[in-house]
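Regression check, iron/sulfur cluster case 391:
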Amino acid sequence: MYYREIAGEKVSALGMGNMRLPTFDGVEKNVDRKKAQEIIDYAMNHGINYYDTAYRYHGGESERFIGEALKKYPRDSFLLASKFPGHMMVKKENGVVGFTAGLAGWPDSTVEGVFEEQLSKCQVEFFDFYLLHNVNEKSLAVYDDPELGVVDFVKRKKDEGKIRHLGFSTHASSAATIDDFLTRHEGVFDFVQIQLNYLDWTLQDAKGKYEVIRKHGLKVVVMEGVRGGRLARLPERQMNRLRALRPEDSAARWALRWLQGLPEVAVVLSGMSTLDQIRENVETFAGPDPLSDGEAALLQEVAEAMMDLVPCTGCRYCTEGCPMQLEIPRIITAYNAVKNDDFMARYDPASDSAMDPGRCVGCGACTEICPQGIAVPDIMKKFSEMLKPRR
Ligand code: SF4
Ligand code: SF4
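Current build output:
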């Protein structure tokens, strides 16, 4: 494992993301603790010291799990990062906050109440890294609210030693939003977590966001480096082009090596769900091995060929609120596959109603919450049309 720095802190270049832990049955909350603990133990034994979680991951179970999993290790042997869920909050009266969308149904709380709950669930006295979760054009209504005073609150917690380093994650649609937030809070944050990979470099202007963060002299923590696994499973014809150059390397390794070439990237988070995944990733991060110019040019061509794919990362923020209980990310994966490969013959929505795009009622609840801004109802309609001849 090689290491980078954030504000003088030695961080492993590969970080353990805890939003895609193994589950017993695919239900977010049902984390398979035995399997997940094996992954954490492997990470700890192979030099990974950065552990990322958030209030909402695994329906609140991720924080609880990581607290339990790291308990047996000395507190100074790992760095724990969690996130304040302002992007899912609604302000009520007298400093009380409620929750929206993915956290709907959770009891009301306060800014302080949420933070204390997080410390307690993670079984720690302080967070090494604490982020405002998804600062974007919409959530600024909460983060900028003077009565809630979220930014002042986290600064105060830093002064009290309950937070060591501050940052924020963002799915803002514009780099200017990030620039403006950093300018208004110059000196508060040490790092910014963004969705960064070779496809989003142009598709979602990750390049512009990266440059803004660099301009403010801050470090980048990467999320979705393989786009929720999307860049780990390339269409066959694109994969063959990469294999021609490096026959042994997986698509994920290409994506991660591309990130190693960016000097401001401190940590690349990976939501590793299996021991095989973490073994391969640890190997990829044995030492920096950035792409050569020729390899980067080829990957750029691969990215361009994939630009028309629907950019779903499989985060599943949308599934909870779907009145038809559709398996939205899996349907989108199938839609992309149908468009890119001859997958149509194997797709049978009649065999599973949760996989039938024709059942979408177009309510738009999914698009409302989707951090990628995907117009899901349009996709469902198009896909349903494509499947019509087979019904
Ligand atoms: S628009 Fe369709 S897919 Fe999206 S939440 Fe509504 S029914 Fe589900
Ligand atoms: S459609 Fe959007 S919210 Fe749903 S899984 Fe994909 S990226 Fe996440």
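Comparison notes: Residues 322-324, 326, 328, 360-366, 376-377, 380 surround iron/sulfur cluster (ligand 1) (CB under 6 Å). The first strand starts at residue 3 and ends at 6. No diff flagged against the previous build.
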